[in-house]
Automatic annotation (TrEMBL):
Naturally occurring in which organism (per UniProt): Marivirga sericea
Record key words, sorted: DNA-binding, Transcription, Transcription regulation
Record's keyword annotation contains Transcription regulation: yes
Protein name per the record: DNA-binding transcriptional regulator, ArsR family
Record-linked Pfam families: HTH_5 (PF01022)
Key word Transcription regulation present: yes
């Protein structure tokens, strides 16, 4: 769970998640939306993947990233258990 909170603690990673909620994208498509280098975007994607917030699948010469809604549902359910 710590890796999830670490991943969500960064504004860029939250913006990437927002992009992926609409559709799957490859790293180049994601990078086009930000004013930073592709290696920086790859670093953010790696952190999101390690936190299991996104998944990746090779499609041709590109890797396509998708939002892992299961882990987000688990997180919301856990947060809801904290409510009294």
């Amino acid at each position: 769970m710590n890796s999830i909170f670490k991943a969500l603690n960064d504004e860029t990673r939250r913006e990437i998640i927002e992009l992926l909620k609409d559709r799957d994208m490859n790293a180049g498509q994601i990078a086009e939306r930000f004013n930073m280098s592709k290696p920086s975007i790859s670093h953010h994607l790696d952190i999101l993947k390690r936190a299991d917030l996104i998944t990746s699948e090779k499609k041709g010469q590109f890797i396509e990233y998708s939002l892992n809604t299961t882990i987000l549902e688990d997180l919301v359910n856990w947060i809801m258990t904290l409510k009294k």
